[in-house]
Write the structure tokens for this entry.
Amino acid sequence: MAITAEKALLNNQSILQNFGLVQEIDEQAAEIISGGYERFTIKNETEGNIYYYVDGTRTKREFAKPGTSSVWTTFGKGTIKFDTDERDDVINWKEYNLDSGRVYAFRENKSTSDPFDIELYAVG
């Protein structure tokens, strides 16, 4: 009887250890699925080239042109940094943390009197 109880105890211990391992793997998978990356779309609806950075990576030339859009997938925080003034000799950096699954567009900033000001708007 003592041998069977000992085997049962070891069996239960093994089951609990396996459950702990499965639980840990499930937690890692959930983290990867839910928060492992950010994905969003950036459009350029201005008349000028807009170069910007997403988590430190500069946009490619072909996606800086007016009328273009690009889908970003980043494993960082989803932070965008851009110059709010389209002139080359004036630099005004602005940063936002973007939400995954959203669509954003660069447009003229009509809330200022400066015709060169742009802003990033959530459009979808």
Remarks:
- DSSP finds two helices and eight strands in the chain.
- The CA atoms of residues 17 and 23 lie 10 Å apart.
